[in-house]
Amino acid sequence: MIVTNKKEKMGYYLFLLPAYLIFTVFIFWPVIHSSYLSFFKYNIITITSPDFVGLKNYKFLFNDEVFWTSIKNTVIFVISTVPVKMALGIMLAMLLNRKDLRFKTFYRTCFYIPVVISMVAISIVWMLLFNPGPNGVVNILLSKFGVKPLGWIADSNLSLLTVMLLVIWKDLGYIMVIYLSGLMRIPDEIYEAVALDPVSSWQKFWYITWPLLKPTTIFILITQIIESFQVFTPIYVITEGGPGYSSTTIVNYLYQKGFREYEMGIACAVAYLLFVVLLILTMLQNKISKAEEIRYD
Amino acid sequence: MRKFIALIVVLALVIGCIAGCSNKAAQKEEQPSQQPAQEKVTIKFWQAGGDTAGAAEKMSELIKKFEEANPNIKVEYMAIPWAENPHEKFQTAIVGGEIADLLVVGSPFDHVLANSGAIISLDQFADENLKKDLMDVFAREGIYHGKNKEMDGKLISIPLFGDVRTIVYNKEIFQKSGVPEPTESWTLEEFKQNAIKLTKDDVYGFGTSARYSSQWLPFVWDKGGDILNEQMTEATVTTPEWKEAIEYYIDLLNKTSVPGSINVNLADIQKSFAEGKVAMFVTTQDYVQELMKDPNLKDKIGVGQMPHDKYQTAFAGADVLVITKQSKHPKEAWELLKFLVSTESQIDYCKTVGFLPVVKSAASDPYFTNDPIKKGFLQALEHGKFYTKSDKASGITTILRAEIQNAISKKKTVDKALEDMKQAIDLLLKS
Amino acid sequence: MKKILLYVIITITAFFMLSPMLWMVSTSFSKDSIIASANIIPRDFTIENYIKAWNFPKVFDKSVTFGTFFLNSVIVTACLVVGGLFVDSLAGYVLARKDFPGRNVFFYAALATLMIPIYVTAIPMFLIVRGLGWINTYEALIIPFLSSGFGIYMFKQYFQTIPIELEEAAKIDGYSDFWIYARVIVPLAKPAFGTMAILKFMWSWNMFFWPLIVTTDIKMKVLQLGLTMFRGLNVTQWGLLTAGMTIATLPPVIIYIIFQRYFTGGLMAGSLKG
User: Are C211 and C125 in contact (CB under 8 A)?
Assistant: First the structure.
């Protein structure tokens, strides 16, 4: 570390000032405001005169079966989509980063296009593709392989899966882009050093690429978990949480409470619980990754 | 260094651009005060929806007419498509004190607004002639408030147009299967038997989706069941009437509807109907108006009434006009409201958008009475029943949907699903 | 032989990824219909949908076309990308390199901004924006989202992997921290800037919920809001919707093609040698 004086240290805060000023006004304050409101019963329209209810909103949540179902669904969603997305994403990035591959830009663009289409619009398309009848596009394709038509959004065991497939399909290119930028950081010299040794490409990946991609992987893991816990739009459009509550997630539940039942206090309580869980998860991940780094060195 | 300078330049441009915009905005606000002589009143008019083909255009046209007749009033009109969740936008605007003077909202959102004191009673403005001219269904079902103390029994809204769902069928499929076309007196059992007869080969007799309570509530209403008690304090869904109706609907759905009916999107059923794969389904007048544009379908479409044993009903609603409490010009807003529900405007507007007029003087126009399809829908509207007026209506919708889906998927028995439905709704009403 | 197989696999997968997009483009060139067909080849080829979609907003306001929305989106997105890269990388730099009291708190605070769904902060945010008199202005669309926890975290991660020696040398030569940030770090972090530019463009371009709340004037609508005009409660105009979607999808794709060249290999290694 370079030795610094006090004046210079004050300068660091100037670097932080623009970003954190905006955060304070537009995120931190609203968040504090809403966590405070989670102790009130307030209707979105009577916001000016909320009633203090203490822990009643939290108690309501703990007793609400639907809330627990939404947590279960969200956890299933996160555990099933994040690893799959990341595994496929890194494979794709490796493939499209090969020196001997031509038309790289074209292929990369193909995989990136799903990322940029708006979620609302593509969800509508997805709904048509996964029509539960024998005339649904996906079911027609499956029937060519002898698979009977599946119920998709109409089957309580498959509705969440239908949404997961969309999210994996859509985010693949996004994970790829971040991994590609990570791969750029690995100097060619490292591979050149082992070029003459008889190592398989799998060994090269496992002993060189993977460890060097670790910061990227942790970055993607942390941000993806935060993001996936908040999945909302595709479920809102495609299944509306059904059949039953089989695809209701935490943010769907929150939205329903806040904007459909006008119980903003409960919605804030949900958000606050979610926040605490995510913060703990993120800190844990950071701790674990730091501990591992030391072992590597 | 060059790149860094470029970055700074771009940033400066960005900031300049922002500053420029804000100046413009500031100027805009100052303008009206520069011409105080005219004493022109500007009212804001926001419409939730207004997104059917040509609807916004027609509305703008009507407003222009209104402005010509009332030179002292200027109207700023905005339509917010349903896909943009206009009600949420209204809520935020009310909280922020930015709401328009006159709103069009989907019923029963007017009751939510009335309950929280966001709109005013219209009794002070409405004259007897208008009240008499309004179709009976609205006074019966929708426009009087019944919960909040201040607004109890008060007139809170005037509908802009009516909206009803009834049986729409494909005549060709009926002929091919040798099934007589629906008559007004079909009982539920006749309806089911005929739907079963129509279901063969690739064709489904009755396309429906349990995702929408509008698809199955009329069967409950037919038996005399309803979601809430009269005081709207408790759910009444565990009655024998409910059980009978739900069992009937599930059987109907399983035997005669498309695969995935438990949660399929209505758009899918509409598509199957247009492709000739569904013989009957329940839909709205504006969708039929769109279907009629297809030359292959035009002559095949028929409109029937909902089957009934005890009480003839149909799932109806209205997009209603309300005047907000924040409005500084409620009188002018009322003038516009009155203009929009005048006989002439009603005929003009409904012709374009395909919805149903709300005043008898417009409904008796030959345009509606000579057209069997329009007539069919108007007749259904007369029997129409509205969804619950409770301010928890949206929450109730979710519960109804989830539990009926649980019953269809056999995750729960009908009894258990209805019990859980009651428990969830009661909890919601108390919270 | 192995090579050909590789190309076949990639091409098939790419086609699979693209098929919904192909459907979208095909429908946009087919005669407008309220029924969505499953064709990949347009029937009755026409460009009418594009013309209709482009002029559709005129029914609300004679002076507004889809071009107005497009321009709004371009302005908002450009400001968010350029300003956002600057603000985020500045904060990311000190978090990556400097030690000072509260550093960890600042870092987790940046991450924490990602953890609250906008649906609960929207109303307090709206009240602040209204207090500032920003309803229906570009400020309301841009400034609240100028900084992002995601960007700060990503820049921090990236800057940490840049060898510190270069910086120390500059430091000894007496250059200021800002000079080092601008002249040493930024040029070395091109892949991070390229990636962030692409991602920020995509997010800003697809913003929906917030613009919906803070704009009431049709002249201030962004493209994603414009698209909803074609989806009615009971009737969706597929031809117009897909035409609008196609128009909306093009700019982020073009941006991707332009910026992805920052990934072309060996960039890091080369600049280190120099």
Answer: no
